[in-house]
From TrEMBL:
Residues 1-17 form the signal peptide. Pfam families: C8, Zona_pellucida. Keywords: Disulfide bond, Signal. Gene3D superfamilies: Zona pellucida, ZP-C domain, Zona pellucida, ZP-N domain. Residues 494-749 form the ZP domain. It comes from the Eukaryota. It comes from Oryzias latipes. This is ZP domain-containing protein.
């Protein structure tokens, strides 16, 4: 019942506690009452287990030899101990604070609590705020080990007196470093430094030779290798005294879970940066430059280009440095030792060398395994580096790192886009730098020499690869997935101001064997426009152009067009797949209930929006048939006086749609469904029982009007008259519009307009008051 008991203590919120119990088996203990900061990591749980000869107190899981845990290891052959957690023994805590500070000059905080283990060995951990101390009281021959990530940071021997060891420390590149000390990384080059206040830093030693970055792999100056697993920017080489950094950006290609070095930047604290990009392109200060085989100097950097790639030569404090980049591999050669840091100095320093502040570049993806990859074939493809003609260089440049890099990549990523040859070329280039040229290796390996590059500049979402046997710009996997996962070749239709556009992704068209020059809309003269920078193909049409078809579907008017393949009857053969990509825009529901009218303004405008297409409707009241005398706030209207109501739209194409006033009615209340109700227009026609109502131009354009004689509701004093109108939009059919039956044409079974949904409307009404003369005015109301 150990764990429930501890849980109850913790849950009770106790700040002063002394908890004791024996432990004889693997036990997990909640120590949140006394958290321990161990080499920069705070822990609130410990795991105790026994191995027969030792006892382990670990912070991140039970110990086993491959666990790489954070642990204290102590001799224990009896597989038992007695545990105590104490936060209330103030006398001991005050005393031990004095002893610890007297023994260790890196400890500045006071003790707050401790964890103690007794019998057969005695030791404990003292929590001191953001610091912690191991205390050890055993004979000299008995040694405790302090482990971080399974690595022994310190062995603490026993003594006749208490022994204290600072376990606060730093955690650098996975290594534990005690405060106020320095240790070397596994390559014995990079110094890991932890200050007295547990602030970490690193310094690098002198290096020279060749660093190769190919695919996701970095082979540093000492031949050690590591791989980049994300799509971030990293420091390959940095000399702070010279104000220089060499950076590499990694991006995905066909798979989202494999990265490749994509560009290299020479970054100067003073002067213009130089970028070496895909396709042997170079930017100096953001502007492209044209290079040749002759060396040209920019910002003190000698730049040249040949058929294999671009070379930049610089000097770091008098030491010559050569940087070569061909779009797939970067190779940095230093002939004289220099003091630098970065991935080329230590390939295991990826966390400290990562530069990208945007954490999205670190997102990990898992793509399905490629079932076309044969591991046996991969081994044969990579082991060629041990065969002739490469074997002539094996004694000078060890091929093992290049073989491992080749295998690791080709076991996940298909051998396409010249990837197999990329590793072979990198090794041959390394041999050349070491004065051991591999002759005609490309012939023996059946590789292109020089390898083909994309003639066009690829955009940011593209890379240079093979498409149906041709070298061209392919889509990067993460970018393409937003379209391919939905089985699309581009984005959604964009509808705006009676026009529509569709954008297709150029690299997806190429990968699907579609030549954009063979595509057009329903009208063959309407072709797409290719953006030369983004390689996006855009098609546009308006409601009355490019063969646009106008149809109706219950409550919508739909404008449809399609991207299709050019089809000429004169062509005897074709190598283009047939393409049919239909896209459309629609006008939804402009039903206007309560088209607003209520005294004080002389006109009302309502803006109706449908997706990105929008239009407005204006209602005005006049006192004359010529519609020149607009009724305003001070206009007089008497009972039985004729008034004219004009409904006018702006933003609709009268060649495609027309406006029909379906119905208008009056109520004594502001709700359109209130009663009593008096109909003026029904089904597009004037109320036959009211001889004063006349309807003009209904359904014959984008505006119409009607007139009636002013009235009031009987028995209402004073009487208010609210006028409500409902409109429909109808589509031209067979070069004419369906009209209401009262105009001499049989009414359609259903008009092709929109339903009643739509944005909230404002209301407008006419008010008549008894007395002479009557006053009419209009006002906006919510």
């Amino acid at each position: 019942m150990l764990l429930p008991l501890l849980f109850l203590f913790a849950a009770a919120g106790l700040t002063d506690a002394s908890i004791q119990f024996p432990i004889t088996e693997n036990t997990q203990v909640d120590t949140s009452l006394c958290p321990i900061t161990y080499f920069g990591q705070e822990y609130t749980t410990i795991y105790i287990n026994f191995t027969g000869e030792h006892m382990f107190v670990c912070f991140n899981g039970y110990y086993h030899p491959e666990s790489n845990g954070d642990c204290i290891k102590a001799p224990n052959t009896e597989s038992k101990t007695y545990f105590e957690l104490n936060t209330e023994d103030y006398s001991f805590l005050n005393s031990v604070t004095f002893d610890v500070k007297d023994s260790i000059n890196t400890i500045t905080n006071d003790a707050t609590c401790y964890l103690r283990f007794d019998h057969p060995t005695t030791f404990g951990l003292i929590a001191m705020g953001s610091q912690s101390v191991l205390w050890w009281y055993n004979p000299p021959q008995i040694i405790a080990s302090v482990l971080v990530n399974g690595d022994v940071v310190e062995n603490v021997p026993g003594s006749e007196n208490w022994v204290y060891s600072d376990t606060s420390g730093c955690r650098i590149s996975g290594f534990g470093v005690k405060p106020g000390t320095t240790r070397q990384s596994l390559d014995n080059c990079t110094s890991l430094i932890c200050s007295n206040t547990s602030v970490s830093s690193t310094s690098s030693c002198l290096v020279k030779g060749l660093c190769t970055v190919t695919g996701p792999t970095v082979i540093d100056f000492r031949g050690q290798m590591n791989s980049v697993s994300d799509r971030c920017e990293y420091t390959l080489l940095q000399d702070q005294s010279a104000g220089f950094s060499l950076k590499a950006n990694f991006l995905e290609r066909r798979r989202r879970d494999v990265s490749f070095v994509d560009s290299v930047t020479l970054d100067f604290s003073q002067g213009a940066d130089i970028q070496l990009l895909q396709g042997h392109r170079v930017l100096v200060g953001g502007s492209p430059v044209t290079l040749s085989g002759s060396v040209q100097t920019f910002n003190g950097v000698g730049l040249s280009k040949d058929q294999t790639g671009v070379t930049a030569n610089i000097s770091l404090n008098g030491s010559p440095v050569s940087v070569f980049f061909d779009g797939t591999t970067a190779q940095i050669y230093i002939d004289v030792p220099v003091n630098v840091k970065g991935l080329c100095a230590d390939s295991s320093s990826s966390s400290s060398s990562r530069l990208s502040s945007d954490s999205s570049c670190q997102q990990q993806y898992v793509d399905p395994a490629d079932d076309t990859i044969n591991p046996t074939t991969v081994i044969a493809q990579c082991n060629i580096l041990k065969s002739s003609p490469f074997s002539s260089c094996n004694a000078v440049v060890d091929p093992e790192s290049y073989i491992i890099a080749c295998r690791n990549t080709l076991n996940k990523y298909p051998a396409v886009d010249g990837l197999r040859c990329q590793f072979l070329k990198a090794y041959a280039k390394a041999c050349q730098k070491s004065q051991s040229t591999v002759q005609n290796w490309w012939t023996a390996a059946k590789c292109h020499h020089p390898e083909p590059i994309c003639q066009d500049k690829c955009s940011d979402h593209e890379f240079c690869g093979d498409i149906h046997g041709n070298t061209d710009c392919r889509c990067r996997a993460i970018y393409a997935s937003q379209y391919t996962e939905q089985n699309r070749l581009g984005g959604p239709t964009v509808c705006k101001d009676n026009t529509a556009s569709l954008t297709l992704v150029g690299c997806l068209l190429k990968e699907n064997g579609i030549d954009y020059n063979h595509l057009h809309l329903n009208d063959k003269t309407c072709t797409g426009v290719m953006d030369p920078e983004s390689h996006m193909l855009k098609f546009s049409f308006s409601s009355d152009s490019c063969g646009t078809e106008v149809t109706t579907n219950n409550s919508q008017v739909i404008f449809t067009n399609a991207v299709v393949t050019r089809n000429s009857s004169s062509d005897l053969i074709t190598r283009q797949d047939k393409v049919f990509i239909e896209f459309s825009c629609s006008h939804p529901a402009p039903e206007l209930q309560n088209v607003a009218f209520k005294i004080i303004d002389n006109s009302v405008e309502v803006v109706l929006q449908s997706g990105e297409w929008h239009y407005s409707l204006t209602m005005k009241a006049y006192s004359d048939a010529a519609q020149t005398q607009l009724l305003g706030p001070n206009s007089d209207v008497r009972l039985n006086q004729k008034i004219w109501i004009v409904l006018e739209t702006n933003g609709l194409d009268e060649e495609v749609v027309s406006v029909v006033t379906d119905s208008c009615w009056a109520t004594s209340g502001n709700s359109p469904s209130s009663s009593p109700r008096y109909d003026l227009i029904t089904d597009g026609c004037a109320n036959a029982e009211d001889g004063t109502v006349q309807v003009m131009g209904n359904g014959q354009g984008t505006s119409n009007s009607f007139s009636f004689n002013m009235f009031e509701f009987s028995g209402k004093e004073p009487s208010e008259v609210y006028l409500h109108c409902q409109l429909q939009l109808v589509v031209k059919k067979n070069n004419s519009f369906p009209l209401p039956g009262c105009l001499g044409v049989s009414p359609p079974l259903s008009w092709s307009g929109w339903g009643s949904s739509g944005p909230a409307r404002r209301r407008r009404s006419l008010r008549y008051r008894r007395g002479a003369p009557a006053l009419i005015s209009m006002v906006w109301t919510p």
